[in-house]
Design brief:
- By secondary structure, this protein is an alpha/beta fold.
- It has two domains: about 180 residues, Vaccinia Virus protein VP39 (Rossmann fold), CATH 3.40.50; about 55 residues, N-terminal domain of TfIIb (Single Sheet).
- The protein has six helices and eleven strands.
- It has a seven-stranded mixed β-sheet with strand order 3-2-1-4-5-11-10. A four-stranded antiparallel β-sheet has the order 6-7-8-9.
- Strand 6 and strand 7 form a beta hairpin.
- The longest helix is centred in the N-terminal third of the chain and has 14 residues.
- The model has no long low-confidence stretch (mean pLDDT about 95).
- The structure holds S-adenosylmethionine (SAM).
- The site of S-adenosylmethionine has 20 residues, from helix 1 and strand 2.
Length: about 250
């Protein structure tokens, strides 16, 4: 059997199209919104112009705008952007439907953000490198690229797993996942079963990069590591950290 975590038919729009209607319900607090806003104000400067890759429903972008930043967000999923419009009907966030590698707006921006593992949504060979390159082309020398992602620890992962995400008397959501450490990929489905509605599938897929791989991609694109934390509120990064927030600075 091929060692793969691939979901056949999965595309860049699949995640957003599957999760848009429940994203804010399930993931409102999945990362620290207030600390993210503070970090972006710190790196972009008060009133600075931020580019968010994979802006989604605006969970982070709208609070950034409310903190005085100017925010442009791009997302592949029109379903996610429709949720952003509901949250931000007056269009304070400049929303662009497109790919976060190939369709980035010209800028320039003071800083860019790719939060909550979103960089790992780029699955094709070389796509994450091309993303670093594309962001570099939108920043001035000294501009910041903030990357938030999990720290891969594939040794402790079973190759496949099923667990219960939530359960009530007439509804259960199962989390089904598989990992391919050799390919640095993981994929899964949230399987929602209801008496009234039958089955609903929500697929996801990531291709993870190690810290050294990320730093190498960043260096190739002209960035250096300015700082690395375990959280947006600057908790120290240690060998035991399960996630990282890395601020890359563009050197030119
Ligand atoms: C995990 S969500 C994060 C949303 C938001 N940044 C947040 O933290 O709540 C990832 C987002 O990236 C988008 N996405 C995935 N692949 C993309 C691509 N190639 N180009 C642009 N957006 C993409 C998805 O549609 C989804 O909205």
């Amino acid at each position: 059997m091929r060692d793969t975590a691939e979901v056949h038919g999965y595309e860049s729009t699949s995640y957003g199209d599957g999760f848009a209607e429940i994203y804010d319900d399930w993931y409102a607090d999945v990362t620290d919104v207030g600390a993210t806003v503070q970090r972006m104000v710190a790196v972009a400067g008060s009133g600075g112009h931020v580019l968010e890759l994979g802006v989604g429903t605006g969970r982070l972008a709208v609070p950034m705008v409310e903190a005085g930043l100017s925010v442009t967000g791009i997302d592949a999923s029109t379903a996610m952007l429709a949720q952003l419009t509901l949250r931000d009907p007056s269009g304070r966030v400049t929303a662009i439907a497109g790919d976060m590698v190939d369709d980035l707006p010209d800028g320039p921006f003071d800083a860019a953000l790719v939060a909550y593992n979103t960089l790992f949504n780029l699955l094709e060979d070389g796509a994450q490198q091309r993303c670093f390159n594309a962001v570099a082309g939108r920043l001035p020398v000294g501009g910041a690229f903030v990357v938030e992602a999990f720290v891969p620890n594939s040794e402790n992962r079973s190759r496949s797993d099923v667990s219960v995400r939530s359960m009530t008397a007439n509804r259960v959501v199962l989390s089904v996942s598989q990992h391919s450490p050799d390919r640095q990929e993981a994929s899964g489905q949230f399987v929602e079963l209801t008496e009234a509605g039958g089955v609903r599938l929500r697929p996801w897929m990531v291709r993870w990069a190690t810290l050294s791989q990320l730093d190498a991609m960043a260096a190739t694109a002209g960035f250096c590591v300015e700082s690395r934390w375990s959280t947006m509120d600057c908790s120290p990064f240690t060998d035991d950290s399960t996630q990282h927030v890395t601020v890359y600075r563009f050197k030119g």
